[in-house]
Design goal:
Order of helices and strands: EEEEEEEEEEH
Largest sheet: 5 strands, antiparallel
Shape: rod-shaped
Strand content: 25-35%
Oligomer: single chain
Number of strands: 10
Distance between the termini: 112 Å
Structural class: alpha+beta
Mean pLDDT: 80
Helix content: 25-40%
Low-confidence stretches: 1-5
Length: about 140
């Protein structure tokens, strides 16, 4: 028997969940009338729990909660699997990663490069102008002889 995924959906976060935060997963059904239908929740293919409300919550998420989740209704079928990603708890309160640093550098690098080239050109122009000025005043006056 083929089960179509159109009727059952696992409502889960798209972005990574922060360690220590709660995580709520909902098993939703394409049904005109809302109701609390029972659902089984799975992680990496293993049954986590059965809920009569169609909703389950992990109160304090840890890195070990990362994995593939899906839900299943006994009659309506099962949802596609969703990857739940967990990021480490931010100690400073601000999210910082190597990726964000590289993205910032990539965005700023053309401006930085242009600034350096202009500074070098200005420096060279100043050196050439100073040499020209020095050479002009240092030349012997041939007409005075």
């Amino acid at each position: 028997m083929l089960l179509e995924y159109d009727d059952v959906i696992l409502d889960s976060p798209v972005h990574p969940v922060t360690e220590g935060d709660p995580l709520t997963l909902r098993c939703l059904y394409r049904d005109p009338k809302p109701s609390n239908l029972p659902a089984e929740f799975y992680k990496n293919g293993s049954l986590l729990q059965t809920q009569t409300t169609g909703e389950t919550t992990i109160r304090t998420v840890s890195k070990s909660d990362e994995g593939l989740y899906h839900c299943k209704h006994p009659v309506k079928g099962e949802s596609p699997q969703s990857w739940i990603s967990v990021r480490g708890e931010s100690k400073s309160g601000a999210s910082f990663s190597v990726f964000s640093l590289l993205s910032s550098l990539k965005a700023a690098s053309p401006y930085l490069l242009v600034s350096i080239v202009l500074m070098v050109k200005c420096h060279r122009a100043r050196v050439v102008a100073t040499r020209w000025k020095y050479m002009r005043y240092a030349e012997p006056s041939w007409g005075a002889m």
